[in-house]
UniProtKB/TrEMBL annotation:
InterPro entries: NAD(P)-bd_dom_sf, SDR_fam. NCBIfam families: PRK08303.1. It comes from the Bacteria. PANTHER family: DEHYDROGENASE/REDUCTASE SDR FAMILY MEMBER 1 (PTHR44147), DEHYDROGENASE_REDUCTASE SDR FAMILY MEMBER 1 (PTHR44147:SF2). This is SDR family NAD(P)-dependent oxidoreductase.
């Protein structure tokens, strides 16, 4: 029987309803972790963007993978709800939290591509900052004292990209690069206590929403390449999920603190593959197509 490298570990995946968050939660479950899955879409409700995936579904997938999934409906922009969540985790686990995955996003419907910043809806931009940046800070704020009690505390900020370059839209770029900087700052605050804080990006994520956008399923996803050529280099949420489970079980993880990491670079290091047996490498693909180095 395969050793469960994270058995006994307590993890919180904030924003675990779908996409990267769901893939991460399942992969942590595969290694035996107890995973608190949080988000705003619970049984009987639909998200702001019309998605039907729920935190309960993700928690059940964690259970099926071999872990313990615990769904708790939480709006991570609400300080009181986040505090109540962390208080619950603390009371149920002796004041300890080993792994925090800050994956809250909710900015799909707020990004206005193809417009200059001053032509965009300022209200949407400010809401994106609240949904996708302030939520991360609030969650880290209340979680930090619990991470300090772990013998190998790990905080991962999930973002898009590994640097501060412009990503084609000012509010989006500012949020995603700020999340990288948040991890850098958190690493400085936490390193004296041995807690690791890093940022992590997937490549072109083949999420449930992206599959629906292109009108394909995982079984025929390559048909979408006719509409978007770069989709050929995409990866499933499992790939970034396995990146996290390998990070969480790495005894030398602290050496990585304060740095931005990518799913493809970690695959090079740890040797994990995607759910279909492939090893997608967005960094190599990007360099071949655009002549720029993302590694």
């Amino acid at each position: 029987m395969k050793e469960k490298k994270l058995k006994g570990k307590i993890a919180l995946v904030a924003g675990g309803t779908r996409g990267a968050g769901r893939g991460i939660a399942i992969s942590l479950g595969e290694e035996g972790a107890t995973v608190y899955v949080t988000g705003r879409t619970s049984n009987g409700s639909i998200s702001e963007i019309g998605r039907k995936e729920t935190i309960e579904e993700t928690a059940e997938l964690v259970n099926k993978a071999g872990g313990v999934g615990i769904p708790i409906k939480t709006d991570h922009t609400n300080k009181e709800q986040v505090k109540a969540l962390i208080d619950k985790i603390s009371s149920e686990n002796g004041g300890r939290l080993d792994i925090l995955i800050n994956d809250v996003w909710g900015g799909e419907h707020l990004s206005e591509w193809g417009k200059k910043f001053w032509e965009q809806d300022l209200g949407k931009a400010l809401k994106m900052f609240n949904n996708c940046l302030q939520s991360h800070l609030i969650t880290a704020y209340y979680s930090a004292p619990l991470l300090l009690k772990s013998d190998s505390g790990l905080l991962i900020e999930v973002t898009d990209g590994i640097d501060y370059r412009y990503r084609g839209n000012l509010p989006y770029s500012l949020v995603k690069s700020s999340v990288i900087n948040l991890a850098v700052c958190l690493s400085e605050e936490l390193k004296s206590d041995g807690v690791t804080a890093i940022s992590l990006t997937p490549g072109f994520l083949r999420s449930e929403q992206m599959l629906d956008y292109f009108g394909v399923q995982e079984s025929n996803w390559k048909d979408a390449v006719k509409k978007e050529e770069h989709f050929i280099a995409s990866e499933t949420p499992t790939f970034v999920g396995r990146a996290v489970s390998h990070l969480a079980s790495d005894p030398n993880i602290f050496q990585k603190t304060g740095k931005p990491w990518s799913s493809w670079k970690l695959s090079d290091e740890y040797g994990f593959i995607d759910s279909d047996g492939s090893r997608p490498h967005w960094g190599n693909y990007y360099k071949e197509k655009f002549g720029e180095n993302l590694n």
